[in-house]
Design brief:
The chain is mostly helical. Helices cover 75% and strands 0% of the residues. α8 runs antiparallel to α16 (318-324).
């Protein structure tokens, strides 16, 4: 894609001097924040929704699981579409779906309409992160960057985990002041802003090749059968996980029936949607996915599990329980960008694992008599885990993923994160099945200690990670011919990372 596309000839010198200006990055940050915000903000609206619609509170859990499931499937699909059709087109399509979902949810009169709205929001918000990564990777290549643009990746990290952490308290205040419908309607002004910025500030995609833009040609290029097989397998797996501890054997059988032919099909494809051979050969990328899943297992277990415990054991209101977790979002927001800007990988991942173990140990020590300051301290520790894991794994993803597959790889990165999130809700449901008491919280803590140790081992034993930041990282957002870079020693940042 030409850097001047849609901007005129004057864009070329601007791109060389400042490839990642705020006008380019801001819509990417806003779009990437839509998914995590919508994932968490609805948590405070479930009880009011159940009361007004006259349905059991447990039935409203479908509003959480439906978005998770839609996002887990749509994230890599959106990434693949961005690689084939163009990231700006897919990004705009996603924003319009979120707008539609917010409108349907805000006007919804029954649980079915709200569930459909959450699915639309899940699919639409899933375009944000993978499309942003494609646009950033292409812009870096056009500007001649040979190191990850750490500051930009840090902004994405901040837009991701930090906004997810502040979702519950913001949702509590919004729902408390204006009613549960605003958990949906809040998307209308936000998407209007994102749509305007995207149309005005992001460069247009190249024109599609008419000979390759028919439905059959596009379906073949994106591997539509592979996507459908992945969707069926993922849906049945998530249904099985969400049903635990009561095993839904039918869902597990569907998973087996759909996943086996999907794997066989993908192994035979020359350009598969889910590249099993490529992932097996790219151990650095596979380990990045696994580390992110385990890290988000810990963060979301605290975000939701400890919230249930503070309400049940301490008697805090929903708003107060959400506010106790606000420091976690604040710490994550403050640390995400500085960590990512330095292009560090191994150091942040070690810090994430260590703080996850320490914070999980803190969960084991908490009781219903613990002061609020102890709860805040644990959330602060997990705020460090959130920032460090997202920053380190996101940089590792940028370095390990093939340039022409960064969209799909970024989507799968988020999908594995959602698997960790879904597993956290499963574990919380199992340990709290007899009530959200101290014993259940301590069991959660022990499970997360084991997960933190696993993350630590995946980091320490990974020889592809480096203990040193990219040489010249402070100038990582500058092109090769920038005066600031010409004074730096000639190094190869990719060899430094070995990621």
């Amino acid at each position: 894609m030409s850097p001047t596309t849609g901007r005129g000839e004057s864009a070329a010198p601007e791109l060389r001097q400042e490839p990642f200006a705020w006008s380019f990055t801001t819509p990417l940050y806003v779009g990437s924040a839509l998914n995590p915000v919508n994932s968490s903000i609805v948590a405070t609206a479930l009880v009011p929704i159940a009361g007004e619609l006259r349905v059991p509170v447990g039935a409203t859990a479908v509003l959480v699981s439906s978005l998770y499931l839609a996002s887990a499937i749509a994230q890599p699909t959106a990434g693949k579409l961005a690689e084939v059709l163009g990231p700006r087109r897919v990004f705009l399509g996603g924003i319009l779906l979120v707008l539609l979902g917010g409108l349907i949810g805000g006007l919804g009169q029954n649980l079915a309409m709200l569930t459909a709205a959450r699915v639309l929001i899940g699919v639409g918000t899933s375009a944000g992160f993978p499309c942003a990564m494609v646009l950033i990777r292409r812009r870096a290549a056009e500007a001649g960057l040979d190191a990850p643009p750490g500051g930009v990746l840090g902004g994405l990290a901040m837009a991701g985990m930090a906004t997810a952490a502040i979702g519950p308290p913001v949702g509590g205040l919004l729902v408390g002041a204006a009613g549960w419908r605003w958990a949906f309607l809040v998307n209308l002004p936000v998407t209007a802003i994102a749509l305007t910025m995207t149309l005005r500030q992001l460069p247009k995609d190249p024109a599609l090749d008419r000979a390759r833009s028919g439905f059959r040609q596009i379906a073949d290029r994106i591997d539509l059968p592979g996507i459908l097989g992945f969707a069926a397998s993922m849906t049945s797996l998530v249904v099985f996980l969400m049903g635990l501890p009561h095993a839904r054997w039918t869902a597990l059988a569907v998973f087996a029936v759909t996943s086996v032919p999907t794997v066989v099909w993908e192994l035979r494809r020359t350009a598969p949607f889910f590249d099993f051979r490529g992932l097996a050969a790219n151990g650095a990328l596979a380990r990045t996915y696994l580390r992110q899943a385990l890290a988000l297992l810990g963060v979301y277990t605290v975000m939701y599990g400890m919230t249930q415990w503070t309400e049940a054991a301490h008697g805090y209101s929903t708003v107060a329980a959400g506010l106790l977790l606000l420091p976690m979002g604040a710490v994550s927001a403050l640390l995400s960008r500085p960590l990512a800007r330095r292009n560090l990988v191994r150091g942040p991942l070690i810090a994430a694992a260590v703080t996850m173990v320490l914070g999980s140990g803190g969960l084991v020590l908490l009781t219903s008599h613990s002061p609020a300051v102890a709860i805040v301290l644990v959330s602060l520790i997990f705020g460090v885990t959130s920032a460090a894991s997202t920053a380190g794994n996101q940089t590792a993803l940028y370095l390990a993923a093939p340039a022409d597959q960064i969209g799909t790889a970024s989507g799968l990165f988020r999908t594995f994160g959602y698997l960790g999130t879904i597993t956290s809700s499963v574990i919380a449901g199992i340990v709290f099945r007899d009530g959200a008491g101290d014993h259940g919280l301590h069991t959660l803590g022990l499970v997360l200690v084991a997960a933190g140790v696993a993350v630590l081992l995946l980091t320490l034993l990974d020889r592809r990670l480096t203990a040193h930041r990219t040489q010249g990282a402070p100038g990582a957002s500058l092109p090769r011919n920038s005066p600031a870079r010409t004074a730096e020693p000639a190094t190869n940042p990719r060899k430094e990372h070995h990621a």
